[in-house]
Amino acid sequence: MKFDLPALPYPYDALEPFIDARTMEIHHTKHHATYVVKLNEALEKHPELQPKSPEELLKSPDLVPEDIRTAVRNHGGGHFNHSHFWKAMKPRALGGGGEPKEKIAEAIRKSFGDFAKFKDEFSKAAAGIFGSGWAWLVLDGRGEILIVTTPNQDSPLMKNQKPILGLDVWEHAYYLKYQNRRPEYIENWWNVVNWEQVENNSQGSG
Questions:
Q1: DSSP assignment of 183-202
Q2: In the chain, is it the N or the C terminus that has fewer CB atoms within a 10 Å radius of its CB?
Q3: Which of 205, 123, 206 is nearest to 169 (CA)?
Q4: What is the mean pLDDT of the chain?
Q5: Radius of gyration of the chain from Cα atoms?
Q6: pLDDT for the residue numbered 3
Q7: Which helix (H) or strand (E) holds 137?
Q8: Phi, psi of 81 (to 5 degrees)
Q9: What gap in Å lies between CA 35 and CA 138, rounded to an integer?
Q10: Domains of the chain (ranges plus CATH)?
């Protein structure tokens, strides 16, 4: 079984003006697509692993043979992270952005005091990543929500954390529009967060 590049749940220009169409097209059809191709190439050497999902491979790296472990970590992580990222955004006109509701809003208030404090802490974590990586809101093994960061295409799954919201801060995610202004990209990204999907992720139905 080979992995496929998932279709986006919206057109490339749907997140304008916050994330431009050309960036979305390149990000999806070039960067994400390459992770899928490279993951499939790695797994060709070990067909017994092909039925497993990216989540299973990332959660149990010791099950992955050493000769492809780095490739699975990088490309499996890239495939999973991006698949998660696309779904966690939606157009502003269709309800993207704003503040969360329901249970995730209560969890954020409990852990961070209020949404403004959470947004500030998450944004600072994302802006402070050295080089390439991701900022995440995750559930830990006790069901508590935390802000964490991962380098490169590492996934929180590798630390037994459940990702419920992730922000890609690799330069390819924003450089065409924002150049070196990562904090501006981060601030604008909040306008397209799909809080309904984040809620689903937190409840295990993402």
A1: HHHHHHHGGGB-HHHHHHHH
A2: N
A3: 123
A4: 95
A5: 17
A6: 95
A7: strand 133-139
A8: -60, -45
A9: 23
A10: 21-87 (1.10.287.990), 92-202 (3.55.40.20)
Query: Bridge-partner residues for 149, per DSSP?
Result: 135
Can you give the pLDDT at residue 192? 98
In terms of residues, how long is the chain? Answer: 206
Q: Which residues pair with 148 in a beta bridge?
A: 136
Residues in the chain where the model's pLDDT stays below 50: none
What is the CB neighbour count within 10 angstroms for residue 161?
19
**To which residue do tokens 């202004």 refer?**
181
CA–CA dist 103, 143 (Å, integer)? 13
> 8: closest CA among 25, 20, 30?
25
- Which two tokens mark 44? 């060709």
Measured CA to CA, the distance from residue 205 to residue 63 in angstroms comes to: 26
Q: Where are the alpha helices (DSSP H) in the chain?
A: 21-26, 33-43, 54-59, 66-71, 77-87, 102-112, 115-127, 175-178, 182-189, 195-202
Predicted confidence at residue 143, as pLDDT, reads: 84
Percent of the chain with pLDDT over 70: 98
User: What pLDDT score was predicted for residue 203?
Assistant: 87
Find tokens 């990543």 and name the residue.
129
Give the list of residues 6+ apart from residue 148 with CB closer than 8 angstroms, or none.
125, 135, 136, 138, 156, 159, 161
Specify burial of residue 122 (Cβ count, 10 A radius: 0-12, 13-18, 19+). buried
